[in-house]
Design brief:
The complex is a heterotrimer of chains A (382), B (155) and C (393). Chain A has helices at residues 24-39, 58-61, 90-100, 121-126, 141-156, 160-174, 188-193, 221-227, 255-268, 289-296, 305-310, 313-316, 334-347, and strands at 5-12, 51-55, 81-84, 106-114, 196-198, 201-202, 211-220, 232-241, 279-281, 360-367, 373-380. By secondary structure, chain A is α/β, with parallel strands linked by helices. Chain A has a domain at 5-119 and 209-227: Thiolase/Chalcone synthase (Peroxisomal Thiolase, Chain A, domain 1). The two termini of chain A are 18 Å apart. With 155 residues, chain B is mostly beta strands. Chain B has one helix spanning 26-39, and strands at residues 42-47, 52-54, 72-75, 78-87, 100-107, 114-118, 131-136, 147-152. The longest helix of chain B is centred in the first third of the chain and has 14 residues, at 26-39. Chain B starts with 25 loop residues before the first helix and ends with a strand. Chain C has a domain at 7-122 and 215-221: 3-Layer(aba) Sandwich (Peroxisomal Thiolase, Chain A, domain 1), CATH 3.40.47.10. Helices cover 37% and strands 18% of the residues of chain C. A nine-stranded mixed β-sheet of chain C has the order 3-2-4-7-1-8-11-10-9. In chain C, strands 5-6 form a two-stranded antiparallel ribbon. The chains are: A alpha/beta (382), B mainly beta (155), C alpha/beta (393). Chains A and C meet through strand 3, helix 3, helix 4, strand 8 and helix 9 of A and helix 2, helix 3, strand 3, helix 4 and strand 8 of C.
Chain lengths: 382, 155, 393
């Protein structure tokens, strides 16, 4: 049995529409310094942090080898740094593997993105499509989400009012989260009145463009207990890749998420996930995804997303107390921020949004058109 | 956001990524494109092991890794709408002025729908199950856009 | 640090490396390597639990390309991980696969590195790695003449140029034995003088003939836990240890102070951890990421912790030849084939094939008990792998 791995420190910047006054290195430093201060770790040769795992994206950063500009910030001069070029929560998956494998005892995880630098986020995600069959018709992640929302909403009776309520709640939740100072408070009526982007997705249903950075320190059990009073253990991880072409998939089926969740539950030794989590953070890039991913995680009955929203499910199950993706995180960091939020909750450091006595939580990340790839992490405290 | 920064010495660097790219369609993709262009026929591939006719065609079955290079089958240029969205945000990568309809269209004889433009009907009148047919492009682009768009037709 | 469990390399697959692969698209080219790797490991895609994928997005301008590449990778329904670190990507993919298996998360992992450089603009892509304010106007892609100038300065023009060309011709002679290699020019030693004179100059004495190719290609490797590896493979190549050392972006940040090379640093640390005191004696073979014959010649000194002109002598005395005392790049190396996202993986894969005794026509004529493989990228980043024939204790 491999050793336990704990999250020992969490730090993040605020997430804002345009941090024009900071380079991405500056945002990362803002995260790195509190992480080192919280744990007392440094980058010294043999006793320092074992490896740095960054998360960034060459196209969003408009730089080949986007981590190349981060070496000094990540303490990687003559040290190991490796970049996750995938959904950010995969940095936890990778850090867990590197520590459980025995290669290092500690890992710094640090993701950053300035979505504001690009002219259009949709133009970036358009580049994820193949050049022959899907780019020429203009697909991007927003249009793909429109197709998925259409397929899902019918199946689960999720209507425009439900979606408006999800967005309005996210805004309210975000008011208690100091990391999302720009999240607007919207009424149901305001959301319902916002223009359509890609039917049935309205402008207010889509996560805002934002800049920000987030990081954590991971450590093997012995080290974790030495440097942290309240480590949060990564007890289960799981992810799954679905088909590329939208038409090859049943867009409402949650195929990949179900597999990802099942793997995470199995590794965490959870038979029945229902009622087992005190906090849940899902990457709701678009409002319809909050109930859809909850169904895929097996935490809400299949086909009952609409009823779950109407019945106050998100509050009852402490879903996205942070405000979620709808309150604003860069695309590639969504899942990593979700994990950071769950860890803060389990550490008892979630401030005004703290859920009392939270012991076990689930964090979820998603990448690709209409949820092609999902990754789930289960976090627990002793 | 903090708004009281002294901006007098703050510079930004204007950049643009404008590198040339040339993508190769592969033999399967090339045959799909030339058949579409020259014969106005839409081709799929059938994976016998998975008992599925895939459109667009691909050389390898994603599910079983079977070789589908010579497993061609022609599918219809008519089909029905199984799902759609209306794209309403203007952007430079989009093929049409907004609003326009992107529909998932299941062609006759195919098991997997393709995503394409649906025109000739106001967006609010588009419905699932609607019968549609391909309108072939007058000028070739050597892409899937040699089908210019789909339009409604009699069932 | 104690490894949780041992990891063996049990299969290697490579597409043909070429400047032009017009007949395949990206997933199709990747699939060639995947199919060969699975066959080589004697497993099917159903046995694989996780797929690790990497390349550099700006070379082909595909965002998160593992999403599209599912059509060729076999990742449908499986766990995946995407890691990229520039030129070192391929070696980082091997490190990732090692961790994923060693941790116990997976018993069998497939890692894939690829690049289809013909589809993009490689030098333009690389130039975009430089900081837009401080470096982008100065960067000349990956072409640098500094090492040539330094070697000429240290050893004199005649000897330095002769060594670099001898190294180049040696690599071509190796590539001639590797039917997957991209550039197989059939050079002979008597062409050395003519090439040194007439090959077009790129930067200073770095000439076209010295420089690595731009290739299309994919490499895939299958990794298994000790138990599975022993069951599936007569002679796996075991991953003894690996180390990664990056260095900061701006070369001049420390002024004129001499900076320890990441190669020497990584080698010293790795050898120290693995109890290697005399690398030239104890290591049987080296697959080096040699982007040019100047770098290849110069870096030999760093990786083997040599001093003075010992590395030049190794080249002059044919020690690095396939049948020499210390064979370097019997595959032909990076100068012969360079699909960038795969290149560093190919180094580990070729070293593994030599350990397994499955390198075919370019198998070295001796038992390879211990092999070294290096990856290079970024601003002098190093990844160094040590593979063994015996199960590491």
């Amino acid at each position: 049995m491999a050793r336990r791995v704990g999250i020992c420190a969490v730090a993040q910047t605020t997430y804002q529409r345009d941090k024009w006054h900071e380079r991405f290195q500056g945002m990362a430093l803002e995260v790195l310094e509190p992480l080192l201060a919280q744990t007392g770790l440094d980058f010294s040769e043999d006793k320092g942090i074992g490896m740095s795992i960054s998360v960034s994206d060459d196209i969003f950063d408009a730089r080949t080898i986007s981590d190349n500009g981060m070496t000094d910030v990540l303490g990687a001069h003559m040290r190991c740094e490796e970049k996750i070029a995938q959904e950010g929560i995969q940095a936890l998956y990778y850090g867990l593997a590197a520590i459980q494998g025995g290669h290092v005892d500690t890992a710094l995880v640090l993701g950053h993105c300035k979505e504001s630098q690009g002219q259009s986020r949709n133009m970036v995600t358009h580049m994820a499509f193949d050049p022959f069959y899907t780019r020429p018709v203009g697909l991007d992640f927003t249009a793909a989400a429109g197709l998925q929302a259409q397929a899902y909403a019918d199946r689960s009776d999720v209507g425009d009012t439900h979606l408006a309520d999800i967005v309005a709640r996210a805004g309210r939740m975000a008011q208690l989260n100091p990391a999302t100072p720009e999240a607007p408070v919207l009424t149901r009526e305001e959301v319902l009145a916002s223009p359509m982007l890609a039917d049935p997705i309205r402008a207010h249903h889509a996560y805002p463009v934002s800049d920000g950075a987030v990081g954590m320190i991971l450590a093997a059990e012995e080290t974790a207990l030495a440097i942290c009073d309240h480590p949060v253990w990564i007890t289960g991880v799981g992810n799954c890749m679905d088909s590329f072409f939208l038409g090859d998939r049943d867009l409402a089926s949650n195929f990949a998420l179900k597999q990802a969740a099942a793997r995470a539950y199995q590794r965490a030794g959870i038979d029945q996930p229902r009622d087992r989590f005190d906090v849940v953070e899902v990457s709701d890039q678009f409002a319809y995804q909050q109930p859809m991913w909850m169904e895929g995680l097996g935490l809400v009955d299949e086909g009952c997303g609409g009823a779950w929203i109407a019945g106050g499910g998100p509050d009852a199950m402490n879903v996205n107390r942070s405000g979620g993706m709808l309150a604003g995180n860069p695309l590639i960091l969504g899942g990593l921020v979700r994990a950071a939020e769950v860890a803060l909750q389990l550490m008892g450091l979630a401030g005004e949004r703290q859920v009392a006595d939270a012991r076990r939580g689930l964090a979820h990340g998603v990448m690709g058109p209409a949820g092609q790839f999902h990754s789930v992490a289960i976090l627990e405290r002793d | 956001m903090q708004s009281d920064f002294d901006t007098s010495d703050c510079y930004t660097i204007e950049g643009k990524l404008a590198l040339p790219y040339t993508y190769f369609a592969g033999r399967v993709g090339s045959r799909f494109i030339t058949t579409l262009r020259d014969q106005h026929k839409i081709m799929g591939v059938r994976c016998a092991a998975c008992d599925t006719v895939f459109v667009p065609p691909r050389q390898t079955c994603e599910r079983c890794l079977g070789d589908l290079t010579d497993s061609w089958c022609e599918v219809g240029s008519r089909g029905r709408v199984v799902n759609f969205t209306v794209v309403r945000y203007p952007d430079r990568h989009l093929p049409r002025p907004v609003p326009f309809v992107l529909a998932m269209i299941l062609l006759e004889g195919a098991d997997t729908p393709i995503v394409h433009l649906l025109e000739g009907i106001p967006p609010e009148q588009v419905a699932v199950d609607m019968a549609v047919e391909a309108v072939f492009a007058e000028t070739t682009t050597n892409t899937i856009r040699d089908i210019d768009h789909f339009k409604p037709c009699d069932a | 640090m104690k490894k949780n469990r041992n990891v063996g390399i049990i299969g290697v697959g490579q597409s043909v490396y070429s400047s032009h692969r017009e007949e395949v698209n990206q997933p199709e080219m990747i699939n060639e390597a995947v199919v060969e790797a699975l066959e080589s490991a004697g497993v099917t895609i159903d046995d694989v639990e996780c797929i690790v994928h990497g390349n550099m997005e700006l070379f082909e301008m595909i965002h998160q390309p593992d999403l599209w590449h599912v059509l060729g990778t076999g990742a449908y329904g499986k766990e995946t991980l995407r890691v990229t670190t520039g030129g070192t990507t391929g070696a980082t993919l091997v490190a990732a696969a090692d961790h994923l298996v060693a941790s116990g998360l997976h018993d069998v992992v497939l890692a894939i590195g690829f690049e289809k450089l013909q589809e993009g603009h490689t030098t333009g892509g690389i130039t975009n790695m430089a900081d837009p304010l401080w470096g982008r106007q100065l960067q000349t892609g990956a072409l640098t003449g500094m090492t040539a100038a330094q070697m000429i300065d240290e050893f004199g023009e005649e000897r330095a140029k002769k060594v670099a060309m001898k190294y180049r011709i040696q690599m071509d002679q190796h590539a001639m034995k590797n039917n997957k290699a991209h550039r197989r020019l059939g050079l002979s030693p008597d062409q050395a003088e003519e090439l040194a004179e007439n090959s077009p100059q790129l930067v200073g004495e770095l000439r076209m003939i010295h420089m690595c190719s731009q290739s299309d290609g994919a490499c895939a490797m299958v990794f298994a836990s000790e138990e599975k590896a022993k069951a599936l493979c007569d002679q796996p190549a075991w991953i003894k240890d690996h180390i990664t050392a990056h260095r900061e972006e701006m070369f001049c940040i420390f002024g004129d102070a001499p900076v320890l090379s990441t190669h020497r640093y990584a080698a010293r640390k790795l050898f120290g951890r693995c109890g290697i005191t005399n690398p030239r004696e104890e290591i049987d073979l080296f697959e080096m990421y040699d982007p040019s014959s100047w770098w290849g010649s110069d870096w030999l000194r760093e990786f083997l912790l040599l001093e003075g002109d010992a590395h030049l002598k190794m080249i002059e005395n044919d020690e690095i030849a396939i049948d020499g005392a210390f064979p370097v790049n019997p595959s032909g190396g990076v100068i012969a084939s360079n699909p960038i996202g795969a290149t560093a993986m190919v180094r580990v894969a070729e070293a593994a094939l030599q350990v397994m005794g499955r390198a075919g026509d370019h198998q070295v004529p001796k038992t390879v008990n211990q092999a070294l493989a290096s990856g290079f990228g970024g601003t002098m980043w190093t990844v160094l792998f040590l593979l063994t024939r015996e199960v590491p204790s």
